[in-house]
Structures are given as C-alpha cells and as structure tokens.
Amino acid sequence: MTVALLPPQELDLDQQFTELAARYVAPRAAQAYEAEILDRLAWRRLAQHGLWRIGVPVELGGTGGTWKDLATAIAGIARGSDDLGFTLSLIAHAGLVRAIAVHGTAWHHDHVLPPLLRGAIGATALTETHGGSDVARTRTQARMCEDGWLLRGAKDHITNAPVADRALILARVPDLGRRDITLFLVNLRSPGVRRGAPEQLLGLRTSPTGALHFDDAFLPREAVLGTPGEGLATLYDVISFDRALYGLVAAAYLEPRLDEIVRFTQKREAFGASILDHQYVQGRITDIRITIEVARAVSLSGIDALVDRDAEASLRCSVAKLVGSEGLVEAAQNLMRLRGHIGYMRGHISQDMQDALGTLIAGGTTEMQRKNILNQMLATRSEV
C-alpha cells in the first residue's frame, strides 16, 4: 500500500519524517543494531510514505519537490530514528536516486528509477582495496560486447552492498583511451554479480557494508550513466550531494542528544550546584550547539550551490562533510565526558561514539575532503 504524500509546500517535511522515524525506525533500532542488519521493514514504510519521491520531478513519478526538500526529510529521519547507521544507508540511496533523476536517460527513468522510489535499495560503489577513496585508481573494467557491456572487477567497503538491489558502479573502459572512466547502473541480482559477506564494524551496525564482485556481469548498452569516458564529472556531482547530507544529518542527529544532555546537567549536582553552572560544562554544551548550527548552515549552502551549478558547490559540500563528521565525533566525546563513568558504559552514549567515528571514513575521509577543498580553491584561483 502506498500512502499519499502531500506536495512539499503543504507540509513540514522535517516534522513529518521526524515523526515517521520515531514511529517506524526508533522502536526497532536497538534490535536491528544487535542483529547488525538494516531495518528493511522501516525502509519500506518510509518509501510508502513517499520519501524517495520528494525530490523527483512529477513526470518521473515524484512529487515535484526540490533536492533540499529530500535533504530536509532525511534530516528529520536522523532526528527521530535514534539510528545513525540507518540514516547513512538512506544517504547512499538518496545519492543514487538523484543521480538517475538528474543524469539519467529515458531508459533509466523507465527501468531503473521506479523500483528505487518504491522501496528497492540502492548503493554507489566506488572504493577498491588498493585505491581506497582515490577513484581515479579504479581497476574495475567494462568492455563492449555485441549487445552491451561485460563488467569485471571488485568494489570494497560499499554501504548497502549486502542488501542493495541496484548500484552505481565506477569502471574503466580501456577501449576509450586515456579518458575512460565511466559510470554504470547495475542490477545486483544479475548473473555474474557476487556479494561479499557483511563486514563486522565497530559502529554503524545497521548500515551493512561489504564487497561486490563482477565476473563478466552483462549490462545492457543503456546501462551507462552520462557520457562514456566522462564519468568523473558526473560522479563529483553525485557524491557532492551525499557529502552535504552527511553534515545535515550530523546536525539533526545531535539535536535530541543536546536537549537530553542539557536536562541531565540541569538536574545533576556537584559541589552544591547544578553542574550546568560550571563553565567547563557550558563550554562542552555550547560546542555541540555550534557544531549543529555550522554543519546545518554549510550543508544547506552546499545543496543550494549544487542545484544552482555554482562553481564552488563541490568545495562547500566537502566542507559540510568535514564539519559534520569531525563535529559529530567531538560532540559524541563531549556527551560521553559530561555523563562521566555512565557515559563510558555500554549503552546509547558509547554507541554514539562508535557510530560517530565511522562517519570520519564513510562518504570519503576527512583527508579526502581536505584534498578536494584545496583542489577546488586552486582551480578557482587559476580561473581568476
């Protein structure tokens, strides 16, 4: 059953999806974390409420909202779900949905996009063991055959890989010469596609990651996203949206935790006064609020720049990812220290610390974000 979703301008998407996440995701979050699985039932429920149709044009099966509307809805889920891993899996899927809607052909819109809007799970597979986040070093290759392409190679540490139905794959097409990097949309349930076992992670255990292997997997000729050989240009647009979402999600995820720690420090007494009266406590709490405000602002700026095709869009989105993930780790540490010994015990406080650390790597490391920021700065200066 599909639940009708009102046009974005007629509702508060943030509030709506905060409440939906509290209803569908949060009650099952601890159980899913213990089992180390993605909550597929919650995923389907959110899809039935129109989550993935929000940023998609009406003619493609969407509600005609904006990509900022979709980002706002995902932030609402981060706020209400009590499950950071689940939200990061949503980010991976959101990037694929936008990639197809913005860069896809009529074939992609007719054959690949509809199931992703209804609840199928998507992934973007870039990383390989030898190259890490350096996508230019990819070794996965596609060669043309009579009716399409044959894909051979492997991807590692891919968010959603153990459960995904479709994936965006970065590969080389040697026949094209030096400019050979190309993006392909792959049905992961096709012959020739193998999945590795789900990885055992320190945190983010509800966001399954793993390897994908391609043994001459056949792809139809239309599977190419964008222009063959021009995959990097398309890819940077795709991953920039993901990076901005990381910052926005970090801000939203911290909001209820900030409210909780303020209440705790107001009630907790030491040396005859509420510990909130102590400056060192005030400093840690205000640092969390500063992270929330800065991460949210720079993330929304990045999304605006991306939609407007601003030359600094990639830079701003990398700043959002860096500020969001680094700020989330610092905030998790502050939340733990403010709780004292209780914060270090196994529970949701220490879990937040484990999950936060994973965001330093997922979606591109801090070091890769700094490299991209510098490269964009230098490119802008050279154009002056």
List the helices and strands and how they pair.
Blueprint: H1 13-24, H2 26-35, H3 40-48, H4 67-81, H5 84-103, H6 106-111, H7 113-118, E1 122-125, E2 141-144, E3 148-159, E4 166-172, E5 181-187, E6 193-195, E7 209-220, E8 224-225, H8 231-267, E9 269-270, E10 273-274, H9 279-307, H10 313-339, H11 341-344, H12 348-358, H13 366-383
Parallel strand pairs: 1-4
Antiparallel strand pairs: 2-3, 3-7, 4-5, 5-8, 6-7, 9-10
Helix pairs in contact: 1-3, 1-4, 4-5, 4-8, 5-8, 8-9, 8-10, 9-10, 10-12, 10-13
Gross geometry: globular
Task: Give the biggest beta sheet.
Answer: 4 strands, mixed
Beginning-to-end CA distance, first to last residue? 55 Å
CATH-derived architecture of the largest domain: Up-down Bundle
Q: What order do the helices and strands follow?
A: HHHHHHHEEEEEEEEHEEHHHHH
* Content of β-strand: 5-15%
